[in-house]
Write a structure and sequence with these properties.
By secondary structure, the protein is an alpha+beta fold. It is built from 15 helices and 25 strands. About 50% of the residues are buried.
């Protein structure tokens, strides 16, 4: 280290910080130095004359990102600290006090990340929407007598001479080429997956679109088959070159459905450009909508238009952007949960789903949403016309989910503790190592986690090599891999990706039910897509029907509400409430004078003596690419799931899990169509790179392979991932798996009648 006078006399030394939280910045004057940082809660430390830092954090402080200490006429400096939610603190002595800026409504959702005081005594703070990818809404705060307007910097001249014309949408070359070396059905499946990734992640909407695209492609294929029956169009055609005719008819049928569904969607202009580019690459004119004639082009256009027309009024309210016009009687709609404030609002019913009030909102694939109260996604999905299911009338569910999870109850205590425990196990400093290979995980009975893995690969009969990895890495990867699927295809699209991986496996036979003659790639794909996407469409209808009927709470509401009430274990101990959280040493505790003494585990929670605290993930770090938040003690009333701070929890009820229902239904279809419950070779593996795979924080710490022996094992882990992620409780998962199994078997049976021509 050098300064202007030459080498420094003293080298840097390591000073104990007294905190495990991230520290972001430091500033000092005279003999006083201040440090700020934090994660879910802020940290403010002060060192005097090189002493070990003292905790100066104000009660209930959010993440702090800026600090400045200015010399004053008094012996002590005037110090400002700023941070999340536009929070400002000032100290003119030993204690920091909250500063009411008068701009709290405008600053809600923003973060002040730097502050300074000028030589003439004016204090400035800057920030904006710095905790999301938007990086907008820049703000400058000024405190002092010499306030002057901030000069605006004129924008540079636009490249188009000031017309602000938008350039035409361009399709990414990789999206155009996706599936080019596969069947034409695969190519259009890749197009809808790309469109889903661009759009808002609305699983029931995309499941419906996947099914209707698959039905259109099936009808175009079946028109040239003497046995198969169509879903929406059953006409038969002949052609000198059936392969080429099918290729053309499928392309036009797919194009018309996709144009209808994704033109108004987020990223619609890019999707339309991609569809046109694929048609051009195939040698077809995307603008040719002719539907009269016996040729393949006219047939494809007829089929596409028929699917659009016959499904427009199927109960989903597509023309109303899938909004539900019915009144919602959920009383918690009056009490949205403000994520940035502790606990739940007065009047909250902990049994019921509660919309969130997010200061900054974004979808899991990064689309910035309007901040404020969540809007229920998919509430009409349960009324949509299904592929294979039937029921007497709308007064009964498509499938009986049994009793709704209820609070207060002893089972609910166990389920909530499991969610908190999983969160505590995301601790990157925990060296607990587990085997995550099929030798140790999987092989569960339906609707349970009772499996102990496999003694040997059921296909090759060789032993599975162990995959030893830190439990925290496994839990975090599991939660994120299944969160919405890679690149956010949503769970229905994710299972299309898996089905395509199966079809691409070396040596895969493409035999229906594992028997008979091998099908060509196109025939295999249209059979799989019809059954698979019919199943996930019905899974969405089943799950969202149950969600609408039960309106069951998410863990976020349950844990905060129970922790806010107190502890329910010891009537003679502090904070007792019969409806509170159960105490679990090392996981759920009450802060005492002894536990928050200097050097003790609750030291940083000293202002909250008598409150219930949990050991849990600390929330999204400031720099997700370089930091991991870790695990520590926080108030139960501040608990957050392992999710992005702009997402937190889905905008629909918890019971039953859509992931579990989608995944088990898809697993049943793939097991039935391939004739085996096991992946080709008895093992499907995903290689997970170190440090860069996760998006909520840095990780995992080492590379490893996530893998499954069977379709059911993969489906079970999709459900388990939602417990790790803090999104669901156990019955949401288990019952979702059970109903998903019924849905998948129904879809497989009904699809078979279209395959063999016996459909009515």
């Amino acid at each position: 280290v050098e300064d202007g006078a030459g080498p420094a006399k003293e080298p840097f030394t390591v000073m104990p910080s007294g905190t495990q939280e991230t520290l972001f910045t430091v500033h000092g004057v005279g003999d006083r130095v201040f440090f700020v940082g934090g994660s879910a809660q802020g940290v403010l430390l002060q060192s005097t004359s090189g002493s070990n830092p003292l905790v100066m954090t104000p009660a209930a402080s959010p993440l702090l990102q800026g600090v400045f200490a200015a010399a004053s006429k008094n012996a002590l400096p005037t110090t400002f600290a700023v941070g999340e939610r536009g929070q400002v603190y000032v100290s003119k002595g030993e204690a920091f006090a909250d500063v009411k800026t008068g701009f709290e409504p405008q600053l809600n959702g923003l973060s002040l990340h730097a502050t300074t005081t000028s030589p003439d005594g004016d204090t400035w703070a800057v920030g904006g929407n710095v905790l999301t990818p938007a990086l907008d809404r820049g703000a400058i705060l000024h405190y002092g007598p010499k306030s002057k307007p901030v000069a605006k910097i004129p924008p540079p001249p636009s490249a188009d001479g000031g017309t602000d014309a938008q350039p035409p949408a361009q399709c990414p070359p990789l999206d155009i080429a996706a599936g080019k070396d596969k069947s034409v059905a695969r190519r259009w499946d890749e197009q809808i997956l790309a469109s889903i990734r661009r759009d808002l992640p609305r699983p029931p909407v995309h499941a419906r679109n996947l099914y209707h695209l698959s039905a259109a492609m099936w009808d175009a294929w079946a028109a040239y088959d003497g046995t198969a029956k169509g879903i929406y169009v059953r006409e038969k055609q002949t052609a000198a070159d059936v392969e080429q005719a099918r290729r053309e008819a499928i392309s036009y049928a797919a194009l018309r459905v996709l144009e209808q569904r994704y033109k108004p969607a987020v990223g619609g202009a890019i999707s339309l450009a991609c569809y046109a580019a694929v048609m051009k690459d195939l040698g077809y004119d995307a603008t040719d909508a002719r539907d009269v004639g016996d040729d393949a082009r006219a047939l494809g256009n007829r089929i596409g238009k028929a699917v659009v027309a016959q499904t427009l009024n199927d109960g989903a309210n597509e023309t109303g952007n899938y909004a539900d016009p019915r009144p919602d009687a959920n009383p918690n709609l009056k009490f949205p949960l403000v994520v940035d404030e502790p606990g739940v609002p007065a009047g909250t019913d902990p049994n019921l789903w509660q919309p969130l009030n997010l200061a900054v909102a974004a979808t899991q694939n990064g689309i910035i949403l309007t901040a404020g109260v969540q809007t229920y996604i998919g509430s009409l999905a349960g009324e949509t016309r299904p592929f294979a299911m039937t029921r007497a009338d709308s007064s009964v569910p498509w499938h009986d989910a049994g009793p709704t999870p209820h609070y207060p109850s002893l089972p609910m205590n166990d389920w909530v503790v499991e969610v908190i425990r999983r969160s505590s196990e995301l601790d990157v400093k925990d060296d607990t190592v587990i085997d995550v290979s099929p030798a140790a995980l999987g092989n569960n009975a339906l609707g349970t986690n009772d499996g102990k893995g496999y003694t040997e690969n059921p296909v090759t009969h060789a032993a599975y090599a162990p995959v030893k990895v830190r439990r925290a890495d496994f839990g975090r990867v599991l939660a994120e891999f299944w969160a919405d699927g890679p690149k956010s295809e949503t769970p229905p699209g994710h299972w299309n990706v898996i089905a395509n991986l199966v079809a691409d496996a070396p040596g895969f036979g493409r035999k229906i039910q594992g028997a008979g003659e091998s099908l060509d790639p196109l025939a295999w794909d249209v059979h799989v897509y019809l059954a698979l996407n019919g199943a996930v469409h019905d899974a969405a209808i089943t799950a969202w029907d149950v969600k609408r009927r039960t309106i069951a709470a998410r863990p976020l509401t349950l844990i905060r509400a129970m922790g806010q009430k107190g502890q329910s274990t010891d009537p003679g101990a502090p904070a007792y409430h019969p409806e509170g959280l159960p105490l679990v040493p090392g996981l759920i505790e009450v802060v005492t004078q002894e536990s928050c003494a200097k050097g003790q585990r609750h030291e940083h929670l000293a202002p909250f003596v008598g409150r219930v605290v949990v050991r849990s993930w600390l929330g999204e770090p400031g720099d997700r690419t370089k930091q991991d938040a870790g695990v520590g003690w926080i108030r139960a009333a501040d608990w957050l799931p392992y999710q992005r701070r702009t997402f937190v929890t889905p905008a629909f009820p918890g019971f039953i899990s859509g992931h579990s229902t989608f995944s088990r239904s898809a697993a049943e279809v793939l097991a039935g169509l391939t004739g085996s419950q096991y992946f080709p070779g008895g093992y499907l593996k995903l290689e997970v790179p170190a440090d860069v795979f996760l998006s909520f924080e840095r990780g995992p710490s080492v590379p490893f392979a996530l893998g499954w022996a069977s379709y059911y094992d993969a489906a079970d882990q999709a459900g388990q991932s939602r417990i790790w992620g803090g999104i669901h409780i156990q019955p949401d998962d288990f019952v979702g798996r059970q109903l998903g199994s019924l849905v998948g078997k129904d879809a497989l049976r009904v699809a078979g009648t279209y395959f063999d021509g016996t459909a009515l």
